[in-house]
Amino acid sequence: MKGFITVVATLLSLIVTAGVALGCVLVLAGPHSDILPSWLQGVVFVFGWAAVIAVPITVGRFTWRRLHQAGVAQQAYMDSSRKSAGEVIR
């Protein structure tokens, strides 16, 4: 379940990031754009691709770690409730 949620979060962030990056790159460095000098258009293109690659990976990693922490906290809670109920934990 943790893997499925991580994949869904990564894919959703990829879709959103790709859309935003495409819009920004087309506005800033598109073929008919005069907002930036021509030498900066390549830099914007590289940063756009870097964002499309880095942001979903970061979101996936954050989601995986957050779900792991939630699982550890849930397990600790379950262990403590067993102790308070007088059960023997092996």
Describe this structure in words.
By secondary structure, this protein is mainly α. The chain has one domain. 83% of the residues lie in helices and 0% in strands. The protein has 2 helices and no strands. The protein has helices at residues 2-29, 38-84. Helix 1 (2-29) packs antiparallel against helix 2 (38-84). It is rod-shaped, with a radius of gyration of 22 Å. It starts with a helix and ends in a 6-residue tail after the last helix.
Distance between the termini: 26 Å
Pattern of helices and strands: HH
Give the CA-based shape. rod-shaped
Q: Specify the structural class.
A: mainly alpha
Strand portion: under 5%
Uncertain spans = none
**Helical element count?**
2
- Biggest beta-sheet profile: none
Oligomer: single chain
Kindly state the number of beta strands. Answer: 0
- The helix content is over 70%
Return the domain count.
1
- Rg for CA atoms: 22 Å
> If you average the pLDDT, what whole number results?
84
